Amino acid sequence: MKGHLARNPVLLVFVLVVMAFILAPLAVAVSIGFSSSPFLVFPPPGVSTKWIARFLSDPDFMASLRVSLALASVVTVAGVLIALTLAFGLSHLDRPHLRAALSGLILAPLVFPVVLLAVGLLLLLAKMDLLGSPIGLVAAHLIIVMPLCFVTIQASIDRLNPEIASAAASLGAGPIRVFSTVTLPQIWASVVGAGLLSFLFSLNDVTFAAFLGGPDTQTLPLKLFGYVRYRLDPLVGAVSAVFVFTTLALILLADQLVGFDRILGLQGDRS
Amino acid sequence: MTGPRRSTLAIFVLAPGLFFLAVFFVLPVLMLMQISTWTFTPGALMRAGFTLEHYAAFLTDPFYLGKLALTARVALVTTIVTLVLALPLAYWLVRARFAGKGLILGLVLSPLLTNFVVLVFAWIVLMGDNGAINQLLRAVGLPAAKLLYSETGVVIALVHISIPYALIPLIAAVSQVGDDIEAAAMSLGASPWRAFFAVVLPLCGAGLGAAAFVTVSIVLSGFAFALFVGGDSVLIVPLLIWQQVSKTLNWPFAAAMSVASLVIMLAILALGMWLARRLGQRVSA
Q1: What is the DSSP code (8-state) at residue A49?
Q2: What's this model's pTM, rounded to 2 decimal places?
């Protein structure tokens, strides 16, 4: 039999070039964070951690980092909890058409243009007098985080053996008891993975923060966004490096817990 | 447990989440449509009423029409380039067998979870007139390219961020095309490439459509890339919306631009998909 296309050298080279294109900007931003130069030069003339140190000792940046971490924590906990109720509720809904329609509605915010959603939320939050408030921004983040958690958790529920849950039910356990003592222990990894992705999304969001933020919601990405508009120096690289490393570390952890191959519905190498 | 009781419990549990979605997703989208018809006087902000003046201004003023055409062109080029780059990658990620696939997937999807200020910063460094790309071009004796503050630069940045998003529906589409279908085509004498183009590609139609939709959605959200990579020379609609929101405070006009650009882009997308299907039928016939 002829060679499979997946092992074709031409395809492999193409794939490697595309992957390099995807990762190159992240690598460039990180490398400038470790530059020894006082100016923005690439490639950096030497390695130093002085810009990282400058970032970590800047009270303004640290204050916005605290805002970001607090926001991301609240969003993560709330997002995971609501997504769990949605996943549980949908799996117990006996009408397939309604189930498909609702799951489409839950996922819709993920494909709606973020800027347009931000303008819509701006109008709503202004009316509710929540514009610029942390609560408004939490709600905005949740609208993206909730479906993100939902797909991750749903992917894991779909892989469960339904007979275990029905065995528990036939032994007299109610649906909530079955969920908390049988289903949840089997999917906890995906719940933690969903939490990590939520935390990352909230930590990295600029669009909602820029459209809906106020003095109390100066998150780190928003602070950086404002900084880049007026100044470009390796300090931006240093903050970028911290962001990229945090993102990569949490992505690796999420992959260990859930496996992106599973979230995306691929048969992974793990059993 | 009986069916109806089961469903009642399900609806009860679903209620808070669905209520939240209704208030913070469905309602804002409806308000976007409603307020796009409200009147606006500078200084006095907006007033309830019904007017189509914002739509008329956006869709008849030559300045805005030009920017709408620019946005459509950027969206079209970005979508085509994204699909061409992302589909082979998605195919490889599904079909190739190697350890640590989840890790590679995580890396490839990482720009999706990195804030775009990091990416914008990298593009400024890479694309400047004396940036890394132009240094490289000069080193190999090629003329320098105008990337920063150009449409090309904005398209490159948008393609970059679109690929990870497009990969998600494309991976789902490719993994639904069984390996055996491809093997069958090859056992009938088709080369691996022919099997890909004649069998796998047509079966990925829905996935390609979804990926194109996501890409258009990203272009309509790409105000930051336009702002930093494009500057004043690439005023795509999302950047105009951002300017209306942050500077002019003309929210009804921002809402009208949002609704109109979304509808127009979706119409172009639907037309493109229809044409692609027709073309596909003619080629395979």
Answers
A1: S
A2: 0.90
What region, left, alpha or beta, does residue B63 occupy, with left being phi > 0 and alpha being psi -120 to 50 degrees? alpha
3-state secondary structure of B123: helix
The string over A34-59, giving b where at least 16 C-beta atoms fall within 10 Å of a residue's C-beta and e elsewhere, is bbeeeebebebeeeeeebbeebeebe
d(CA B132, CA B125): 7
Spell out the alpha helix ranges (H) of chain A: 9-33, 50-56, 59-91, 96-107, 114-127, 134-158, 162-170, 175-178, 184-204, 207-212, 220-230, 234-257, 260-263
Contact between A198 and A149 under an 8 Å Cβ cutoff? The reply is: yes
Instruction: Indicate the DSSP class of residue A100.
Output: H
In a domain? residue B32: no
Domain holding B82, by residue range, is 52-284
Q: Which residue has the tokens 């109390």?
A: A216
Task: Say if B264 is an interface residue toward chain A (CB within 8 Å).
Answer: no
Of B3, B191, B228, the CB nearest to A228: B228
- Of A186, A175, A212, A197, nearest to A85 by C-alpha is A175
A10-14, A15-19, B10-14, B23-27: least confident range: B10-14
Residue B19 lies in a domain: no
10-residue stretch averages of pLDDT, chain A, 271 residues long: 73 95 93 87 86 93 95 96 92 87 92 90 92 94 94 83 86 85 86 90 92 90 90 90 90 82 62 34
Asked if the Cβ–Cβ distance from B186 to A7 is below 8 Å, we say: no
The predicted-structure confidence for B40-81, as pLDDT tens digits, reads as follows 877 666 778 888 999 999 999 999 999 999 999 999 999 999
Note whether residue B40 is domain-resident. Answer: no
Which two three-digit tokens encode residue B267?
A: 């119409």
- Alpha-carbon separation of residue A137 from A210, A236, B211, B212 (angstroms): 10, 24, 28, 29
**CA-based nearest distance B72→chain A, Å:** 15
In order of their start, the domains of chain A are: 59-263 (1.10.3720.10)
Q: Hey, is A135 helix, strand or coil? A: helix
**CATH, residue B278:** 1.10.3720.10
Is the backbone peptide bond immediately before A43 cis, with ω within 30 degrees of 0?
yes
Please indicate, yes or no, if residue B45 is contained in any of the structural domains: no
Tokens of A107: 């996922």
What does the pLDDT look like over B118-128, one tens digit per residue?
999 999 999 98
Q: Do B111 and A26 touch (CB under 8 A)?
A: yes
Q: Cβ A116–B262 below 8 Å, yes or no?
A: yes
Structural domains in chain B (count): 1
CA–CA gap between residue B214 and residue B207 (Å, rounded): 11
